[in-house]
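Reviewer 2 asked us to include a model.

Predict the structure of this chain.
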Amino acid sequence: MSKKGILLINLGTPDSPSTADVRKYLNEFLMDGRVIDVNPVLRAALVKGVIVPFRGPKSAKLYKEIWSDQTGSPLLHYSKLQLKLLQDRLGDDYQVELAMRYQSPSIETALQKLKDGQVESIKVIPLFPHYASASTGSVIDKVMKLLSEWQTIPSLSIINSFHNNEKMIETFADNGRKHHPETYDHVLFSFHGLPQRQLIKSDHSGQHCLKVNNCCETLTENNKFCYSAQCYDTARLIAAKLNLSPEKYTVCFQSRLGKDPWVQPYTSEVIKQLAAKGVKRLLVFCPAFVADCLETVYEVTVEYGDEFKELGGEHVQLVESLNDHPLWIDALEEMAVN
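Predicted model (structure tokens):
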């Protein structure tokens, strides 16, 4: 009997925390024209001549801080768990494969496994809750290019975004409840950042993005494809589950690269402002990530934690990501079969 193919795709991780492997990963990641969307010659000069040579050794040190001798990269570890748990749920009628947009396991290898399995259809689930050209768009682009080389292309469907998925929202809320949000002075919803120019490109009307006051804070027909607007919607939904009043939480964005303006407010600036107001305890959600990774377990817990203490704060508590939570696997199962 023919099987249905499910392809889970996350961003990626170096093969090891060595400087050579980190540089290899950064080179593939940052040379993607959807990630650094500038002139290809300029992009190559920036990436190969400036960013990778200097950022590689620094990033390698950070990866060593989160790397496990037993399980390696936390992002790959949890992604593999999600693969196994989803396959167990779906049973023999489905073939589930995992790929990373950059590095291993590759999308090409995963698609070949589905081809060898003679699946009758393929559903692609990019593991990014919020659509962005630099993440989901890049995954779709790569999958389509590879499939275009097949003589026979099976039925194909793709999950564009799932920022308001009820079970995903409840999983984040459930993880947050374990830390008793009422005992914290303020809650941050810190999402991965993007250059403002990429948000503007997603505004098909050309009349909304950064032209209307608070343009991202409410999801509408004009900004339904906007990464930032989808992030605000996710935060609002999680906050509602936790009964957080609007003044109790802030949406912000982390992980800037370069000097161009990125989507704001920046997490680092929000932390400074809160510390100046006397806030002592912060609870931080990172709902752009479905698995804990460098940006959560190190950037938030260590970098922002240390920065906050230097400014007079006492504690920054990270809310764990979706990881292998059963309710998140429920959400993946629903996306796979519906």
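The mean pLDDT is 96. The chain is about 45% helix and 15% strand. We have added this to the supplementary material.
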